[in-house]
Hints:
By secondary structure, the chain is mostly helical. The chain folds into two domains: 90 residues; 104 residues, no CATH class. The chain is built from eleven helices and no strands. α8 runs antiparallel to α9.
Amino acid sequence: MRRPHLSLRRPITGQPVPARAPCSAAELLGSNHPLVRGNELRADLWRQSLVTAAAVVFGAIGAASGRGWGLPLLVAAAIVQLGLGVGLALLTQLQRERARELIIAGRGGLPLPALERELRRLQRPRRRAGLADALDDLVRTAERWPTLVPTARPVFDPRQVRAAAAELRALAGRLRAGTVAVRAVARVERLLTSGASPLYGREPEALRHELTRIHGARQLVLAWASSSSSGGSSSSSPLASRWRLPRVS
């Protein structure tokens, strides 16, 4: 009968485990995610920009040496380079918004450079103070709406802002105190800067819902919804009366 083979080797406990290579954005988000496609487009634009920069230098040398093709090449390459620069700037802003949406969705912990940059930007005290000042300016503008020249009035609905003045001022105070989580800071920035913000709509429920989510008190929305569906008038609900829209002067 054959005896089984016994190994006397012991595992080496002190042997370092090779570190796993960091995952790419495509592996974490999928190849069709807007942030991934934006990264690919930015790489293409940078390559084109390098080629155009070389053409600018070549055209400048030709123009300086009196060659007939130098000045036309310099002008054409400079125009293309300017267009590429504008495209890169717009793409950078768009990528920042896409990273902000990931933070709002609770995916800010992914090991992606774009997310890390956006988190650092949102956590800066100067950025939070700027958002707090913007909220205060928003409320002050809504309160003195009748005294503003019609052509100088902002595009937001002053009734909604006046109805939410207390919540907006409280949120500004929390931003200055540094007691707001980074996801809430991202929501505040989207509220102030996004063209699809409920500030620029005509539905008070949308703004109420967004502020409730920023404050982290979802029970208020549920309480308002249950009181509204119970058949009572809106004036019988404390939350509804708090959000009653005044007339625009």
